[in-house]
Specification:
Elements lengths: L1 H5 L6 E14 L3 E3 L2 E3 L3 E3 L7 H13 L5 H4 L12 H14 L2 E11 L9 H12 L6 E6 L5 H4 L3 E12 L3
Parallel strand pairs: 5-6
Antiparallel strand pairs: 1-4, 1-7, 2-3, 5-7
Helix pairs in contact: 2-4
Length: 171
């Protein structure tokens, strides 16, 4: 590693992990990665309930040890009531930029029994890439069910995971 570093071939990299889970309720929008998904059940939260974006935010903040989403976007703050998670993601990206880092990649997993997300994954990927101003190829969107097991499997919750790699900017 020392030889690579002395040649300038390696940069400082940071990894972060995030997870979020929200209750599903009737008559609420289901928003995943900033995309409104047609569904009879939606994700309940103080903000817009976008569990995927919340997991991504936590992974990005965690990579730089900047605490967690609840520290920056408190549910006790009225301005966060029904707030767009994409707006919070943009603010998080600005924090990363100020720390002189860039997003190398983000890998995500959405666990939801219904609806199936196959036809929405590329739209979610595109929306997130536009929000973060990175190439869509740097964001992986995976989805699966919980095979009828637990709260997620019984269509009572959505659970999302995200991991990211940040790379220090040159110069």
């Amino acid at each position: 590693m020392e030889i690579y570093s002395s040649l300038g071939l390696m940069s400082n990299m940071r990894i972060g992990f995030g997870k979020d889970i929200h209750i599903l309720k009737e008559n609420i929008d289901l928003i995943i990665g900033g995309v409104k998904i047609p569904s009879s059940l939606g994700s309940y939260s103080y903000s817009d309930g976008d569990a995927l974006t919340h997991a991504i935010i936590d992974s990005l903040l965690g990579a730089l040890a900047l605490k967690d989403i609840g520290e920056h976007f408190k549910d006790s703050d009225i301005k966060n009531h029904n707030r767009s998670s994409l707006e919070m993601l943009k603010i998080t990206k600005e924090m990363i930029d100020k720390q002189n880092y860039k997003i190398s990649n983000i890998d995500t997993y959405i666990c939801l029994e219904q609806p199936k997300l196959k036809e929405y994954k590329s739209l979610i990927q595109q929306k997130l890439s536009e929000t973060l101003n990175i190439e869509p190829s740097r964001i992986s969107i995976k989805a699966g069910t919980n095979e009828g097991i637990g709260e997620v499997g019984n269509s009572k919750a959505i659970e999302c995971y995200a991991i990211c790699l940040l790379e220090e900017k040159n110069g």
